[in-house]
Amino acid sequence: MALPEKYKSPYESTKVEGPVYDKELNSGFFTPENLVKAFPERYNADAWTTITPPPNANGRLHAGHALDVTLKDIIGRFKRMNNKRVLMLPGSDHAGFETQVVYEKKLEKEGRSRFGMDRDILYKEIYDFTIQNKDTVAGEVKRIGASYDWSRDTFTLDEKVVSGVQDTFIKMYNDGLVYRSKRDVNWCSKHQTSLSDVETTNKELVDTFYTFKIGEFLIGTSRPETKFGDKYIVVHPTDPRYSKYSHGDTFTAEWILGETTFTIIKDESIDMEFGTGAMTITPWHSSIDFDIAKKHNLEMVQVIDENGKLMEIAGELKGLRAITEGRKRTVELLEQKGLLVEKNEKYTHVVPVCYKCETPIEPQLKDQWFVKMAPLAEKALEASKKGEINFVTDQFRKTYEYWMSNPIDWNISRQIVWGIRIPAWFKNKGTENEEYYIGHENPGAEWVQDIDTFDTWFSSGQWPVATLGFVGGKDMEYYPTQLMETGRDLVFKWVPRMVIFGLYLTGEVPFKDIYLHGMALDEKGQKMSKSKGNVMSPIDLADEFGMDALRMSLIVGSTPGNDVSMSKDKIRAYKKFVNKLWNITRFVLENTEGVNLDVNLDNDKAKRIQEVKDAIAKHINEYQLHLGAEELYHYVWHEFADVVIEDVKKDLTDENKALLKYMLKEIVTMAHPFMPFVTEEIWGDIRSEGDVELLLVKEWK
RNA sequence: GCGCGAUUAGCUCAGUUGGUAGAGCAACUCAUUUACACUGAGAAGGUCGGGGGUUCAAGUCCCUCAUCGCGCACCA
Q1: Which of residues 388-447 of A touch strand B (CB under 7 A)?
Q2: Are A321 and A306 contacting, i.e. CB atoms less than 8 angstroms apart?
């Protein structure tokens, strides 16, 4: 066979990648059952499964996804070549709140708003938007080379997932692990929904800290505007300064709106060291205050409405935006009355804000569904302590265990349309005779379904079970899976929830190994963000340098759990490497035409390449992909190209030619997990009769 | 405040049971059409953040300090 024309010019990734992926995909070997069918002797034993974290179906892929997919795909391809019945299961997440926020921005641009829109119409619009993006995202994941089983592609809003997730809710309710309660929740006044603790973030603010006088008490606060309803003074039971008061004593004093009766409450949660050791409480708008109020059975009054505005109770200040104008006017009122004692304008504190819009969280008392976390977290903690979970990146075990040791009941109700409906039905909702019923079906004409949807993590937490068909499902033979590889930012958002649901539904931890990768940063080590303009699209980079080069650049020099800096220089370096391999192939093809000798493997060169392959295998098995990739790079370039070829060149005997060809086959074999496209392409030109058609399923050995 | 990570060549980073420092990029000197210029050969470049300890031996283990980054919790 003459040298194929394509080798006479440098490697052109754009011509190769699409067809190679199609060839692999169409072979059906991304589906494990087909491996068994084609090679029963190799694939009838162990399965190796990873459930891939579903990218949000609301935009394009970013560099972090490329790292995510590459890591998994390298391991998966390696395991497949090592005769594991590999199942890498892809999917997409409707990403409830996230997507709704994205869609709201789109609506805003169009001069529309979700408020007042018909629920079904809004849902349908977001659904169409998501489905469209979902396909774009899947297409981009494929470009990275993901050898995922797309026949099992799952969407969190697939009917079977939805009903399974609802089943779990019903089961948990029946087991006493879900309850309805009126409690302080994190309320975002912009997005008009409650949020879980992981959906808020902290923002440092420099505010003014005020000290006011109530009778003889000095009360410090950074939130005067919440003080309209305050009528309790809380002190520590053993505080000598207030020993003359007993719990329950009352007194009257001048306050914002006039003479007010205050009651003394003694509670141990007070820090005597802070300020004057006395505070007033606002139970409706502070969960700490709420806890105190609940304990002592105190009145709770709403001061700020769902839009963040002062309510009737604020008198003439009604309707003002609480934290801005409301605060200013409240202070003025108190100052006029001579009750303002001190202003510290440089008070630095941290306030929780909505992680999407940074609107300060205004706690509100709301009736919501909660998951009782303590019993679930206890088991998830135990699983880690007992070593049932192997953290490849062990530094995250502590974070995980800390989280599981300090569980907070989880609010799973969201006041948004985009999500899975909660299977709860109400009669006489909002009245004193309110009743609810938990179940899939509407129990009667006078009942209406809860309009809230589940927190997205309630469904994605069940992902490993959901994708495999839930308990009794046809794919549950793949459960528990081998690997969960995801971003380190999900160490407490997602990972513990999967463990919790996995244990709850099946009694088994859903995965054996957890590998948490770092974030993909720009070349200066900064986070990529649209506002900084330093976002690198993996697709654009692949168009410029080739996906194999991008994959290599993401792996080399990137250690598990640590962030990786991306730079075009680095990717360019591996583009050269890919081309080097291309030229090696050209040389071998040009010089080994018609040679068909058995190779004598009893020589240093053949032994050495086996040694390298074993080393790479060891590194991959230990999840040290960066070491494997580096080993590969150095062997191919600085040993095989620089030494072996130069050496053999001088003495091109038939034996040497056969050896060269053998070695190149070994090289593409061990390079394939890292660089699937170029290696698969080369394989098509160097494989002999009797070799498998696709490198994808070549035995590693 | 608590936790985690980082600090190694100009830049970005490797360095897996402790055994006299490595890569890519950049810069330098040669080679000049070679399978490959998306090249080859060579040289240069670091008291491994500071201090202390363990050890025959420390980039590596322990303690401590400093700086940077990330996460969590917070106090009315």
Answers
A1: 395-396, 398-399, 402
A2: no
Q: Is the ipTM of this complex over 0.85?
A: yes
Q: Is the CB of A583 under 7 A from strand B?
A: yes
Apex A168 CA angle, A163 and A171, nearest 5: 120
Q: Which of A215-224, A441-450, A452-461 is the least confident region? A: A215-224
Contact between residue A264 and residue A237 where contact means Cβ atoms under 8 Å apart: no
- Find the nucleotide nearest A588 (Cα to C1′): B35
The nt closest to A287 (CA vs C1′) is B76
Residues 6+ apart with CB under 8 A from A578: A11, A13, A546, A548, A549, A552, A675, A678
pTM exceeding the 0.80 threshold for the entire prediction: yes
Report chain A's mean pLDDT, rounded to a whole number: 92
Under 8 Å CB-to-CB from A7, ≥6 apart: which residues? Answer: A582, A585, A586, A589, A685
Phi, psi (5° rounding) for residue A444? 175, 170
Tokens of A160: 């079977």
Tokens of A69: 């997919």
d(CA A11, CA A327): 66
Mean pLDDT of A539-552: 94
Measuring from the CA of residue A634 to each C1', which nucleotide is nearest?
B23
Contact A462, A165 (CB under 8 A): yes
